Amino acid sequence: MKIDILLGLQWGDEGKGKVVDALCQDYDVVARFQGGPNAGHSLEFNNVKHVLHLIPSGIFHPGKLNIIGNGVVLDPSVFKCEIENLGPSVEELTGRLVLSAKAHLILPTHRILDAAYESHKGNSRIGSTLKGIGPAYTDKAGRNGLRAGDIIRPDFRDLYEEHKSAHLMMLKNYNLEYDLKEYEKGWFEGIELLRKFRIENTEYLLNKLSSQGKKILAEGAQGTMLDLDFGSYPYVTSSSTISAGACTGLGISPGNVGDVFGIFKAYCTRVGSGPFPTELNDETGELIRKKGSEFGATTGRPRRCGWLDLPALRYAIMINGVTKLFMMKSDILSGFKTVKVCSSYNISGENQAEIPFDNNAAIEPVYTELEGWSEDITGIRQYSGLPQNLRKYIAYIEDQTGVPVTIVSVGPDRNATIFR
Ligand code: GDP
Ligand code: IMO
Ligand code: MG
Q: Element (H or E) spanning 50, and its range?
């Protein structure tokens, strides 16, 4: 059975956690393919909200297997906190969570380096979540990393000390105060917990399950516009957030990919620095933030808010080969007299459909204004029950992108999901 991929088409926080959890009944396996604890994926059921950072969003479904793939960077201390707060016992979780031996470890000194690099950047800082993501992927690409599979080596502690010393040398160039001992304590406790889990070459496991006919969903983190290659570099994360990243981050071949589900909010948000053409620095932006509770699930930072950006959405659909669109947080747009959609960019007086290379290009969004709807839609479960103007909004997006919207999300709960 081919492997489906679900990923974000904007700047992250599109609602991946919610929709993976809602789709889980149709899958046997959920596998995270990139990113690390910079992610914050929220799920809600039985009136309780859960936020996951490293663990795939299928974990609350007994009987489903969850895999942390080789493309992920893993912080053992975050892993430990997350496992302890999940609910099910460690014994139960070891039966449904498997980790790739090839996933790289985030060391305590990676987090300190992240802080050092960001503070050194001053006004051009990226707005990193400071979870050590950039430095850990740097060591991976530089062939200096430690991997989950290394923890069983008898010389693991020596290897760790070698890596730490190299990082401490780098940190001498920065005037930064830090308490490494405190970080290290939680980190080594996390290593002990990791030893209880299956750590293996998950590419074999995934391909075996796929050939046995099991249904596998690859779960992305971040979003396409934060991709290392195709996002607004350098205001990006350090991994491949796109559909191709699922192949390298899990060890699956492109020919074995089925559907690519692209998920987007009915508007846009971004947390951290970097270009955001449709950003609303006014009371409308403030209202969207308030109605949508747009505050980061990992850092608590207020998210920047703006109208839907079609040039960015079309770009993300193109890069990922999206086959189906899922529109999230549709309920948040209820109550606006009109809703705007950016259909193209005006750059130096010219209408442009493409995202410019230059992050500093002065982009003026060209808006199409559609009639709004006032109904509370959070209780609606049938597409036909949605307000006509919302259906027109969706039809407009489908027309502009050429891809069908097959899920409309109308609330944070797993049940507040309309399947078309
Ligand atoms: P992720 O990183 O893509 O998993 O998204 P986050 O969890 O960081 O942010 C999405 C937020 O929106 C979370 O607080 C979700 O509970 C919430 N959410 C998801 N879908 C909907 C929806 O359709 N309506 C509303 N009101 N909230 C939603
Ligand atoms: P989920 O999976 C939103 C942003 C950060 C920063 C940039 C680089 O929840 O959608 P990093 O910590 O990777 O060095 O930060 O990327 N960022 C996210 N924004 N959602 C996320 O994940 C993000 N992960 C990283 O704010 O601008
Ligand atoms: Mg998030």
A: strand 48-52
* Pairing between β-strand 350-352 and β-strand 338-347 as defined by DSSP bridges: antiparallel
Taking the C-alpha atoms of residue 236 and residue 225, their distance in angstroms, rounded to an integer, is 7
Q: Which atom of ligand 1 is closest in space to residue 8's alpha carbon?
A: 3
Residue for token pair 């609606």: 380
**Residue 40 CA, ligand 3 centroid: distance in Å:** 4
41 is catalytic: yes
State the number of CA atoms in the 13 A half-sphere of 415 facing the CB: 7
- What are the pocket residues of ligand 1 if the criterion is a CB atom closer than 6 Å to any ligand atom? 8, 12-18, 40-42, 44, 297, 328-329, 331-332, 409-412
Q: Over the stretch 324-369, which tens digit does the pLDDT of each residue have?
A: 999 999 999 999 999 999 999 999 999 999 999 999 999 999 999 9
pTM above 0.70, yes or no: yes
* Residue in 4, 28, 41, 50 annotated catalytic: 41
The residues with which 45 forms a beta bridge, in sequence order, are: 48
Segment 150-176 shows an average pLDDT of 97
The residue nearest atom 25 of ligand 1, judged by CA position, is: 411
Helix, strand or coil, per DSSP, at residue 264: strand
> What are the DSSP calls for 151-173, one per residue?
GGSTTHHHHHHHHHHHHHHHHTT
Question: Average pLDDT, stretch 192-206?
Answer: 98
Q: What is the CA radius of gyration of the chain?
A: 21
Alpha carbons within 13 angstroms on the beta-carbon side of residue 132 total 24
| Among 217, 179, 245, CA closest to 33 | 245
pLDDT digits (tens, 9 = 90+) for 15-65: 999 999 999 999 999 999 999 999 999 999 999 999 999 999 999 999 999
Mapped onto helix, strand or coil, the DSSP state of residue 26 is helix
